[in-house]
Amino acid sequence: MAEQGPEREIVHLLRKVTVEFGLRQAEFAARNGMHPTDVRALICLLDAGRSGTGATAGRLGAELGLNSAGTTSLIDRLERLGHLTRTRDARDRRRVLLSVTPQAVELGWAAFGPMIGSAEALLRGFDEVEVAAVRRFLLGFHAAVSAKPDQAGGTDRS
Amino acid sequence: MAEQGPEREIVHLLRKVTVEFGLRQAEFAARNGMHPTDVRALICLLDAGRSGTGATAGRLGAELGLNSAGTTSLIDRLERLGHLTRTRDARDRRRVLLSVTPQAVELGWAAFGPMIGSAEALLRGFDEVEVAAVRRFLLGFHAAVSAKPDQAGGTDRS
DNA sequence: AGATATTATCTCGCCGAGCGAGATAATAGG
DNA sequence: CCTATTATCTCGCTCGGCGAGATAATATCT
């Protein structure tokens, strides 16, 4: 009955990782008087900071799938907690620029640092070919997840 | 300026995947008159069914990090939508057994099928060593994420 | 057996995240 | 200038999820 190869196991594993990851995020959020969305917002802002993208309110809301009202209250919340600051953009004064405070960086690090550490330690036991394989898989999967849902194909479910 | 090796990139990639994955889940949920939590619940129930674990209300709530009140209303919601059925356990009549309807299986497949298909296609282009590497990484990372947060270590942040 | 503790789920009342609709302010184009 | 567009905010509301506690079924201890 339906030999389905080792690929299916990998996919379920990845899904399991994402579920567990989401749970940790939620726990961390609760522990710090926040909500899962707030944590994801901090992740996005830290990513934006790392890649030099100017983080604005609207952009953040779009990335999180919130509408403008929700975005405003999210930012209010994070500002109230001292995790970010609003600044009117001087070039285009409709925009609000967001910058995370050092305190928030510290917080983010506390949340993800240990996990990052473990993962790096794990990967240090891999040779170049193996690391490249993991990298290629994640890149490909990210592309697949980002793509709009279209073809389903007659794959065997379970 | 802290040469930080290829490991860090992998971790950020994985985080990106989980964020994107969460977004797709939320979109799918909204498209079907549900909430992100409901989708995660269906995932858990489908997983439980696959591994033969008896799915009970309490167990589901624990996996999702909800308290009993929230769990009850979640189940009410899914039952109302026809995605699961409640049955009192005959052995222990305090328990409520949950079983997903075929309709819900179909729905879950519509949500994750294309993604699973893409990932499998991707992995078919990998040789055994590479697949094994991906598998080992995901297993190790899952273990790391499941572990309680303890050591932080002085790793270089960014 | 009968009293008590424990477990599994449900009910009630409340808080607040996020939505829809629309207001407000700044920029761009005719 | 007058209008269209863009970016953010305000208001009112719905409903997911929490805390507290009720209820019912099962274990445990004399």
Automatic annotation (TrEMBL), chains A, B:
InterPro entries: HTH_MarR-typ, MarR/SlyA-like. SMART domains: HTH_MARR. It holds the Pfam family MarR_2. Residues 7-143 form the HTH marR-type domain. It comes from the Bacteria. This is MarR family winged helix-turn-helix transcriptional regulator. It comes from Streptomyces poriferorum. The lineage of its organism: Bacteria, Bacillati, Actinomycetota, Actinomycetes, Kitasatosporales.
